[in-house]
């Protein structure tokens, strides 16, 4: 049985099915079931790849190696837990009238379509198809961000649409440029867009064209990663959309864009044999880190605050990939995993907190730990984890990243540490009063499901204490791949 | 001889595409913007057909037909309908500092040629020209997006970027593989449908198609406290 097809078809067919289903309660259950099925298939797929270094199927159209297989599993996993969280959350939103039944249908259908776009993007071997799937995932989330139809959500979705549309158009131009030079080497056919073929012939590609192409790809995919100064869409989209959407945007979509960017970097490195691409990424990463850390302090909306934290972490990962040593790449991969887990967990918690208090304004959220201990502890643990406290995984990856920076670019260690500290200060400055502040009387009782949050934090803790053998093997393989230029 | 002739035709079409990008930038009546956009779509289809004929790539004929139907007819028609329904077809959009915009546009074009000029390996002058023009068109369409203040003209700018990218693909690389081409066309179509949906939401919610009115709702969020 081909698990590729199963993994991809499940969300696609599921999305169509959910578009037809009228009953929102049943749709929510089916949504969980579909995502669980996708996750099961992705695990089977991962087990299949585990035995071998890479896997190419369907005439080379799909390709899995150590780098993307764990991202596929991660995407399917977070996709599944988000549906579990989304069931009571969206049910509540329906009850208080923020959405109606027709929009719930749109929500469920687009959610699965988004999953399909994500998984297609990770598994495809073709850089053109990767672009198409990223655009597909973006379009699906545009509709999700505007789900509440409030003025702010429509404005946010429009901004998201236009800015990312513009960014991703630049990435397409970069892709055309890659094809421009690769079609000379590999012939005018699909081969010239295949990762496997491109990596094998990377040294024959024209370095000038590839350098120009990388600039376009960097700005294009960088917009989707949320790097400064192309980040303006991100806080709005995260802040105004439904919380499950913020969770998958932050935890998954940013990863796909970064994945695309890093693959391109591997290709460009193989062609130019310089550190040009890495240095550009380091520059963007460092600036984004500092700007995001400082912007975090100025926020008043809880979801926007945590979306700046997402920018900060994406910046760290970009920076780490930019350094380009095996250790830094290892740290980046680990960080990608733990950030996805913790950040989506935090958004689940934040969603519940906002429902309980009836607002997203941090100034009005108080005393969570007294009236809703589960949410309060969740927020506190999540913040500690994302801020990089031991023993969570983020501490591990940030420590590795710091070591890698000291090894290669010691003078950058100071601003790196500064950025991390500013961001940590910002997080606790806001979270502490929300958790311990004076108890508010207007807290509502809402059906809360904290299980997915604990699963996520538990996994992040596990990754911080000891990385399972198969995962570290994968990370090592992937790090070697990324540093060695693919082939 | 025939190849040289078709190359000349392609070069001429490239020049026209660049001209339309300038024209789009300078128009201030909603309907004329739309007309130029439709002309650009049809021109693209012709370019694709000419390239298909001169290279013998049959896949490109499909692209040409697809482009003609989608970008020459369907998209302009959808936009026209939206403009009619929203009663903005007579609207005049004040352009900020038109002279300055054109000077910037000329600079952008020169910049594109400057960037592409060093690429000497493996390509002849013609494709290099096409690439430079395509890049200039992409940047000019983006310039259009940032100088416009209305949702509809912004969208036309967005679609003009897509057009320029398609031009880059056919002019410089004889077209991307068909699978990718279809995928992109599909995405553009969905994007257009979503745009259509948004026009009405924006109009209903804000009673205007001005971007600034819309962004104000986000800015005020921060000042609330």
Q: What does this protein structure show overall?
A:
Chain A contains 19 helices and 2 strands. The relative contact order of chain A is 0.10. Chain A is 78% helix and 2% strand. Chain A is an all-alpha fold and 487 residues long. Chain A is globular and about 70 Å long. Chain A has one domain (3-483). The longest helix of chain A has 36 residues, at 151-186. A two-stranded antiparallel ribbon of chain A has the order 1-2. Chain B has one domain (2-223). Chain B has 8 helices and no strands. With 225 residues, chain B is mainly alpha-helical. The radius of gyration of chain B is 19 Å and the shape is globular.
Which secondary structure elements does this structure contain, and how are they paired or packed?
The complex is a heterodimer of chains A (487) and B (225).
Chain A: H1 3-20, H2 24-50, E1 54-57, E2 62-65, H3 66-95, H4 101-123, H5 127-145, H6 151-186, H7 195-200, H8 207-225, H9 233-240, H10 243-272, H11 276-296, H12 302-323, H13 326-357, H14 368-371, H15 373-387, H16 393-408, H17 413-436, H18 451-465, H19 469-483
Antiparallel strand pairs in A: 1-2
Helix pairs in contact in A: 1-2, 1-4, 2-3, 2-4, 3-4, 3-10, 3-13, 3-19, 4-5, 4-10, 5-6, 5-10, 6-8, 6-9, 8-10, 8-11, 9-12, 10-12, 10-13, 11-12, 11-17, 12-13, 13-15, 13-16, 13-18, 13-19, 15-17, 15-18, 16-18
Chain B: H1 2-26, H2 30-55, H3 58-85, H4 98-116, H5 125-147, H6 151-173, H7 178-206, H8 211-223
